[in-house]
Write a sequence for this structure.
C-alpha cells in the first residue's frame, strides 16, 4: 500500500496552500508544457491517476472529454474534489494505485500529474500500460529523477557563489524519505531510463520527453522560478500505443 | 567547425593514456551496456561518428559487418587507427562532423561513442537521421547531460560527508568550456529531452534509454567506479526507423 500522507493534517494543510492547489492548473508552472503534450481530449475516456482536488478532471470535461475517472488515495482530497461541483461524467473514486484493479484497456488517455508517480513503489507505468486501450495514450508529469534521487535534497552554494543542486545515489533506485510539507514523506526513485524503458517494453512509443523549463514570462511573473533553470524539477512524458 | 582538441599534443597524450584508448572497448566501462543495445552487426553497413583509434570499427568487422566507415576530425587518431591494421572493408576518413556531407540513407547503423556528440554544436542526431537508411538504426553513447551541464563540473562533499555531483544550468543549453586533459575543452550541452526529441521528430522510434550504472563486478575490479552510482555519467540510446 502506498503511503497516504495527504490525509495527514500537517501535510494536507501545507499542500492545500500550494499555488497548484489554490489556483489549480494555472498555478502549476509545468502545466503549459504538459498541456501542449496532451492529445485533443474531446470525446475521450480519461483516467486521472492521483486526481487530487480534481482540477484536471474538470478541465478535461470543460474541453469535451466524454468521461473522466479521478482516482486518489486521499479521502480529504476526494471530498474537496467532489465539493467543487457535480458532473455525472466525472467520477471520483478512492483507490490505492499500488493495488488497483480496473478493467484492462478501459481508457483512451491515462493522465497523471506530479507527486503521484513518486509516491508509488512500482511507478505509474504499469497502470498506464494496463489502463490504456490499444489505441490509447498516456501523458504524465512526475518529479524529475534528478530532483528525487539525492539522499538529502536541497540547494547548495558553491565556492563561486553559484546555486547548485547536489546529486547523489542517482543510479541506486528505491525509496527516499524526505521532509516536504511534513516529515517522513516516502518517495520511490527510478531513473529516467527505467521510466521510459518500462513504457517501451510494454509496447508504448515515446512521443515526447519534456523537462520543465520556466519561460521568461513565468520568471518575470514569479522570480523564484529562475532557480528551475539550474536543475530539472519535472519530467513530462507523452507516449502512445 | 568543431573544436579539434584531439590533435593538440597535451590532450592527445592524456586521451591516449585512458583505459578506453589503451585497452579499447573493454577499457570503456559503459561498453557492455552499449553492446547489449546494438543490433546484430553481421552484414551491416556501419558509420562510426568519431571513430578515434578505430576500436569499434575493428570490433564490428570482427563480428561480421559488411563495411565500416570511421570518421574523425583528428589526424593523429586516424593515423593510429590506420596503423592498427588494414582491412579493405574499413575506411577511415577525416571529417568535421559539424559540416559533413555524405549520401543520405547510406548506412544500416549509425554509431557513436562518448565525447563525439558533446563536441558537436548541433549534436549527432542530425547525422544519425541523415545517414541512416529507411530501415536503419542508431546506437550511441554520450556524456550524460547531467554530467555535462554544470558551469564548474566536479565532485563535492556535503555536510554529512557524502560525495555529490552539483548540477547547475541544466536547462540552459549551449557551450560549456571545461578543463579535461587540457584546458579550454569546449562541449555543447543539450538536455535529455532535446536529445531524444530530435530523434523522435525525425521519425526515429526510441528503443532503449540507458544510463551507465557500474555492475558489482566492475566495481570490484575497479573500485573507483563506485562513484558512478552517484551521478549519471553516460547516456546510451538505441533508436530505429
Amino acid at each position: 500500500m502506498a503511503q497516504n500522507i495527504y490525509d495527514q493534517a500537517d501535510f494536507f494543510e501545507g499542500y492545500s496552500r500550494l499555488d497548484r492547489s489554490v489556483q489549480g492548473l494555472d498555478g502549476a508552472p509545468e502545466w503549459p508544457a504538459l498541456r501542449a503534450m496532451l492529445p485533443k481530449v474531446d470525446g475521450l475516456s480519461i483516467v486521472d491517476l492521483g486526481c487530487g482536488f480534481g482540477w484536471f478532471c474538470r478541465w478535461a470535461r470543460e474541453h469535451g472529454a466524454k468521461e473522466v475517472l479521478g482516482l486518489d488515495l486521499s479521502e480529504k482530497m476526494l471530498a474537496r474534489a467532489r465539493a467543487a461541483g457535480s458532473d455525472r461524467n466525472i467520477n471520483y473514486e478512492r483507490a490505492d494505485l499500488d493495488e488497483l484493479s480496473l478493467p484492462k484497456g478501459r481508457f483512451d488517455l491515462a493522465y497523471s500529474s506530479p507527486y503521484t508517480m513518486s509516491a508509488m513503489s512500482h511507478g505509474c507505468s504499469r497502470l498506464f500500460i494496463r489502463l490504456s486501450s490499444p489505441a490509447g495514450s498516456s501523458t504524465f508529469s512526475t518529479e524529475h529523477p534528478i530532483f528525487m534521487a539525492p539522499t538529502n535534497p536541497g540547494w547548495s552554494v558553491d565556492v563561486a557563489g553559484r546555486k547548485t543542486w547536489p546529486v547523489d545515489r542517482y543510479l541506486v533506485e528505491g525509496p527516499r524519505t524526505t521532509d516536504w510539507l511534513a516529515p517522513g514523506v516516502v518517495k520511490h526513485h527510478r531513473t529516467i531510463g527505467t521510466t521510459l524503458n518500462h513504457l517501451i517494453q510494454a509496447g508504448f512509443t515515446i512521443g515526447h520527453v519534456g523537462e520543465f523549463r520556466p519561460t521568461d514570462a513565468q520568471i518575470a511573473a514569479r522570480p523564484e522560478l529562475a532557480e528551475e533553470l539550474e536543475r530539472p524539477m519535472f519530467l513530462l512524458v507523452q507516449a502512445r500505443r
Notes: Residues 5-10+40-144+187-240 of chain A form a domain with the Rossmann fold fold (CATH 3.40.50.150). The mean pLDDT of chain A is 93.
